[in-house]
Amino acid sequence: MADIQVLTIDGPSGSGKGTVAQLIAKDLGWHYLDSGAIYRVLAQAAIKHSVDLADEQKLAVIAQDLDIVFSLADNSLKVMLEGEDVTTLIRSEKAGNAASKVAVLPAVRSALLERQHAFRQLPGLVTDGRDMGTVVFPDAAYKVFLTASAEVRADRRYKQLKEKGIESNLSDLVIEISERDIRDSERTVAPLKPADDALILDSTAMGIDTVFERVRALCADAY
Ligand code: C5P
Description:
This protein is an alpha/beta fold. It has one domain (6-222): Rossmann fold. Helix content is 47%, strand content 17%. It contains nine helices and eight strands. It has helices at residues 17-28, 35-48, 56-65, 93-102, 106-117, 132-136, 150-163, 170-186, 208-218, and strands at residues 6-10, 31-34, 68-73, 76-81, 84-85, 125-129, 142-147, 199-202. The chain has a five-stranded parallel sheet with strand order 2-6-1-7-8. A three-stranded antiparallel sheet has the order 3-4-5. A hairpin with a 2-residue loop joins strand 3 (68-73) and strand 4 (76-81). The longest helix has 17 residues, at 170-186. Bound molecules: cytidine-5'-monophosphate. Cytidine-5'-monophosphate binds at residues 13, 35-37, 39-40, 96, 99-100, 103, 129-132, 180, 184. The site of cytidine-5'-monophosphate (C5P) has 16 residues, from helix 2, helix 4 and helix 8.
């Protein structure tokens, strides 16, 4: 397993990591894991089964048995929970916030570790999240930490949600995203922070093409 190469892209919400990760995975011909989607689906499963988002023991059991299927359709990630298409449902900021509540719980995070490791398959894996380079794949050959100013991230998220047909309000998004950033950065287990050996990219004033080229250059010897 450990000899299968991994590129990790971590960063706060709206930094553009998902977009870049999917582009580079396609370019390299590697698998792709959207680890945030797992936390989003878990929160959705908890809501569906009326489990409190703070009930660590029950959530860890749900995490262990989570019936989740990812597939790529027309270049976008389709997500199924217990046979139901939740692709759009899990993308709202409300779903992101619920995800960050279940993500603070240590038993939940450890129940999801093996599931994430299973995505490490030949010819390689590109993954994005908060702790991919620090906790889940600490031995990854390539690590990026992608960030951007809070305003730019909220604006990007607003446009992204609009494209997906999800209504949102920019000023609410600024508040929700910063609440989520604080929860993700201040939790005791696997907080959002760059790995010591990560390339840190601030994309506040960078277009997606430039970010893509910088990440591509980092992984040049994988091509
Ligand atoms: O990346 P995304 O916004 O979809 O993630 C949703 C939430 O899931 C994050 O705010 C974070 O709390 C949690 N998450 C995490 N660790 C990851 C990926 C996501 O804790 N590796």
